[in-house]
Design a protein that fits this description.
mainly alpha, Cytochrome Bc1 Complex, Chain D, domain 2
Length: 137
């Protein structure tokens, strides 16, 4: 019984090696697919007009403006060292306690170098402009 199992494994191993060798030979010869691939019908590519402009231009990078108010300068100075103002403006209107927790998280978890006085101004600014009761869309 052991001999049959070994023979079956040996046969399977030889078959896999042969298939791998054939695949390698096909790859090295550059023949990857069907022999009739060249006969597939395709339209000719359109010619480019010599006087046309084919430039799409730079990708637009719109940076939303923060709301005017006391603390905006601190937000722009400290918060944008790690992320854009879009990160603030794309948030849903968050309650004041959540904004306070976010500022604390940025300082304690992510290591944002924000002095305590600036952190209080940033928190008050975010609570005053981006909370549900006063968010201007």
């Amino acid at each position: 019984m052991k001999t049959r199992g070994r023979m079956a494994l040996t046969t399977a191993g030889l078959a896999m090696a042969l298939a791998g060798g054939l695949a390698l030979a096909q790859m090295r010869s550059g023949s990857y697919g069907s022999t009739n691939a060249a006969s597939l019908g395709r339209e000719a590519a359109q010619e480019f007009a010599p006087d046309a402009k084919y430039d799409a231009g730079p990708y637009p990078s719109f940076t939303p403006e923060l709301a005017e108010g006391d603390g905006k300068v601190e937000v722009q100075s400290f918060c944008t060292t790690c992320h854009s103002t879009r990160y603030i403006t794309m948030q849903p209107p968050l309650p004041g306690v959540t904004w306070e927790a976010e500022v604390n998280k940025m300082m304690k978890t992510y290591g944002a170098p924000i002095p305590e006085g600036a952190a209080k101004k940033i928190t008050a600014y975010l609570q005053g402009h981006y909370a549900p009761e006063n968010r201007k869309e």
